[in-house]
Amino acid sequence: MKARLMDTGLDANRQFRVKHVDEHFLNSPFHFHESCEIVLIEEGYGKRIVGDHIDDFDKGDLVLMGPNLPHIWQNDNIYFQKRKDLRVKATVLYFEPAMVLGLVAGTEAAAAVQALFTNACRGLSVKSNTHAYLLERLHTIRGTDGLKRFSVFLEIIDILARSTDYDYLASDNYHNAMTIKDAGRFNDVYQFLITNFYREIPLEEIAGVAKMSPTAFCRYFKARTQKSFVTFLQEIRVSHACKLLRQDKLSVMEVALESGYNNLVNFNKCFKGITALSPSEYRKKIRNELLTA
């Protein structure tokens, strides 16, 4: 499956589109496009990569992305068995930022909307009260059409522009250095890593996926992602470990093994290097947040 500069279905006569997803699993490759995109996961879980950021996603995940920001949402391996009790549902909005900026030009909203789209170039994970407000609007927009649908869309943009309830995803210094050809190669690499992160992955094996020598692959990966392959793999593993720790069902040692670590000392070191907390401290923090919520 080759990645590409994806066609969002927008053109000069259609600068806003709502898409509903209801599938056994998400099947879009690692890609980017020239439109803004809002993604709400209504059912399903897995991992998402936005720019140089990787994290787990679950029901309720809500992200706004600016133009030309590479991304992929990929379900966990269990979804590819096409079990009847597992499906993925999502609402996706594509829109041209220039269209919105043109509508608000010369109004008091212009600066806030421009700032929102600038921030969205890093990807924004929407949280807290803003998340709750937008869930209602995104559920409403699917059942409307015409001017009513467009008015709900503008309300969504207004809520986002007024809010600071979001986390940045891609790092502050991230820039998309990928060509369409690069995205195709990284699609293969990322899908392999998301599927196999829990086991040892020799450098020669992942370089083979990219059809490169190990030395060339390491240089290429860092040049395109602004981080080393080893760092990226650790981030995948620690992200998965965070999800398991939040679920609070496994011991720390079991979480380490499930996340690709067979040495507890190494797991603790890698986890703290990325989150600034030990696994036990992270679990305690999550428990305290649940008690005070």
From TrEMBL:
**What terms describe the molecular function in GO for this protein?**
DNA-binding transcription factor activity; sequence-specific DNA binding
Residue ranges occupied by any HTH araC/xylS-type domain in the UniProt entry: 187-285
Q: Which residues form the signal peptide?
A: none
Keywords, alphabetical: DNA-binding, Transcription, Transcription regulation
Could you tell me what this protein is called?
AraC-type DNA-binding protein
What's the source species' lineage? Bacteria, Pseudomonadati, Bacteroidota, Chitinophagia, Chitinophagales
